[in-house]
Amino acid sequence: MKSHESDDASVGYEQARQLLATMRAANIDQGRLWLYFFSIGGSISEFEMDAFLHHSLVLPRLQRDLLAQAANELLAEQAPPRAPYAADILRRKNSPVDEPEPDEDEDPEGKEAVED
């Protein structure tokens, strides 16, 4: 049982290290992360979360994974609009709410096309 506990601690240490790096890269402050974590069912205090992030406290796996989930969901909220695939554009272009396409004999600015 002792080796399982040390494995869990080493995994927890690595989770804390990578979570803190993610938070810094995405500019997510600890208060925001803790509030979101708590809202999705996390049950540790903000003080305990801080101790975990700075390797002063080992957390149960469930709490560590809830912290990771909270961070990932906050990252998803920050993401800019995604780049469309061709199929996305074609789907929008063919939807009935879009404006009609210009005639083939007209250029996009509405001027008559010159025929050869």
Description of the structure:
The protein has 116 residues and is mainly alpha-helical. The protein contains five helices and no strands. Helix 2 packs across helix 4. It is elongated. 13% of the residues are buried. The model has no long low-confidence stretch (mean pLDDT 83).
What gyration radius follows from the Cα positions, in whole Å? 25 Å
| Count of beta strands | 0
Number of helical elements: 5
Counting helices, strands and paired strands, the structural category is mainly alpha
Distance between the termini: 84 Å
Instruction: Indicate the proportion of strand residues.
Output: under 5%
The poorly predicted ranges are none
The backbone outline, from C-alpha atoms, is elongated
Order of SSEs: HHHHH
Q: Helical amount among residues, as a percent range?
A: 55-70%
Biggest sheet architecture: none
Give the averaged pLDDT, no decimals: 83
Task: Give a brief rundown of this model.
With 116 residues, the chain is mainly α. It has five helices and no strands.
Helices and strands in order, then pairings?
Layout: H1 2-26, H2 30-39, H3 46-53, H4 61-78, H5 86-93
Helix pairs in contact: 1-4, 2-4
Name the features.
116 residues; mainly alpha; 5 helices
